[in-house]
Task: structure prediction
Amino acid sequence: MKNIAILCSGGDVSGMNPAIKHFVEYSLKRGLTPYFVYDGYEGLIDNNITKASYKDVSGIINRGGTQIGSARSKRFMQPEFRKIAKENLDALNIHMLVVLGGDGSFRGLDIFYKEHGVQFCGVPSTIDNDINGTHYCLGVDTALNIIKTSIDAIRDTASSFKRAFVIETMGRDCGYLALISAITSGAELCLIPEIAYDLQSYEENFKEQIKNGRRYFIAIVSEGIKQDSQEIADWFEENIGIESRVSVLGHIQRGGNPTIYDRLMAYKFVTYAINGLLEGKDESVICYSKSGFEYKSIEEVTAHKYKLDLELVNFL
Ligand code: ADP
Result:
């Protein structure tokens, strides 16, 4: 029997648990022995690696986060610790890895592969949806649904009190979460790092809307824009003349029970990852686009920055 291990690295996302569940079940189905590596690359270095069975994954499909922990590891950046990681894997006869993580994690894996030849397949997992080469990353749909629920709740209070709410979403330099949330929540204003904006250009129109009876504004801003969210709220107060509040959604966007879409995508990503490894693909990332699933090289995924589909802006 061949051994295969799974680990989560970098920011956790909702959808990792369904992926872990399917990893165990599908590995066993394909005649492989599944292992868990706890706490990302830290677990590889500390030999925190255990054999997994069906009972370890029962009752986890509906839970956010990851049962096996995730971490960032400074030590994995250093060759001497990667050597220890390789020795730990060798001792357990593990030569295949499925890694749920972001492009940073894949970069680390690429180096690990080039030094030590450990075969791997990466599963793009980040709520930011900012990995080049894939249109979808695990966890995005759940994060969008959490944001949607939050905006719906904020709208109730905003309309009661005649207020503008500036709602800040995560995404680092990528405005995907903010853009999709703004479109699907009918927000009045959306500010994202990819698009230059001039607040002044909205003033006349917003004031006119108040005159015509508008009681509230919802502004969705991405954390990566140049201005602070409070500055946007101040602009509403000073230039539009409406009381305003800031709501930073923060880490609630990473939690919550995985949506149906993320559960299904977790199953699909993991199936393709294991199939790819069994077919002898040495170092790849399983990507998803309009034409379906596709194995891509680390170079392809990490060489360029993710580009937002600006066609979406037309829906604003
Ligand atoms: P993400 O995978 O979400 O993009 P990070 O960029 O923080 O998250 O990367 C996760 C981990 O991947 C890091 O803590 C580190 O252990 C490993 N890693 C990233 N880049 C490298 C690298 N150039 N060399 C070795 N390990 C790396």
User: Anything to note?
Assistant: The first helix runs from residue 16 to 29. The two ends are 53 Å apart (CA to CA). Residues 9-11, 41, 72-73, 76-77, 101-105, 107-108, 111, 126 surround adenosine-5'-diphosphate (CB under 6 Å). DSSP finds ten helices and twelve strands in the chain.
